[in-house]
Amino acid sequence: MKNEWTEQDLRQFVESSRPVFQDVSLTQVDEDADRCWQDDGLMVDYELRGGQVDCVLRRCVVADGKVWQLQMTAPLAGSDLPEDRMTPREREMCRDDMNHDFVTGVFNRRYYETEFCTKLDEWTDCHRCAALALVSIDGAEKLSARESDAVMGQLVCFVANQWKKHFDQPAERVVCRLSDTLFAIGCADRTRRELEEELKAIYAEMPKECVASVGLMRRVPFTQSIGVAGTREVRCKNWDALYDLCEKRLTAAQAAGGDRIYDGE
């Protein structure tokens, strides 16, 4: 910028800059503002506006005995949110991916805590019952110490797919991987006892060995423990209490030696 500016020069500069910048403004400020700036100093700032990062350039200029603040704003390249660059179909697929466990392909904890718990609310409002089961691979710590990560990954995928054969109806009958070897099975229109009986029948027919194809092919034996609870056993849509009840029964099944579905109480 040239050393001697007039107010007219500044206003012409503003008009000529508008096609280049997202926003250009010229504001008269008091003389004290000019003392806060170094000579010919340019202040650079970054601001988040509506999910977009803008670069803001500010400079104080003395013209015709007055102090003017020139401000120019432009978005940083590629700073808009990823979802803003997606088509509706891509956005739907992205959100669907966020609800699935990338190792096993079944639903994940995020789905359980958002979508499934929301469904529990809806079913309860419609006077429909539902049941939840927690399923754990027995002796997971010992298995992990003995087997490689690759073998454990195959085992977890095998177990997940065995349950997915029977519980693969989104929002009605689902299986979710909550942690390394812990799964949740949710089912609408089932009481606790009804889901227990169904799981017993499925588990009785389920293979108790996984063929590991890492290195030399071999069979890895495993068992599972399961605890089940129904929505009618808790009050006021307290789904944390429902989970805790499942967890309590799962722990009891494990304490009894595992390889079983807890059916006490």
UniProtKB/TrEMBL annotation:
What's a Pfam family this protein contains? GGDEF
Q: Where is the GGDEF domain?
A: 99-259
List the SUPFAM superfamilies hit by this protein, alphabetically: Nucleotide cyclase
Q: What is this protein called?
A: GGDEF domain-containing protein
